[in-house]
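Memo to structure team: turn this sequence into structure tokens by end of day. - J.P.
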Amino acid sequence: MGWSIPERASEQRQAARKGAAVNRARALAHAENVLPVIEQIRAGAASLRQIAAELNTRGIKTARGGKWHATTVRNVLA
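Reply from structure team:
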């Protein structure tokens, strides 16, 4: 859907898969970099919500450049 040349739809699917793999790799690399900071904050018995608030206070962005939420922190820890 949305592909203007139906004969090349398989190329579009292949490009989408490749893009998703790149995004996944970037997210994993970001998680590895931010995990020590999360663990440091977590050592103080902080909740996921408190960890997210502290990351936002420190100006640390998510992999997509957004703000942290408890769910985002949980996903990094998973």
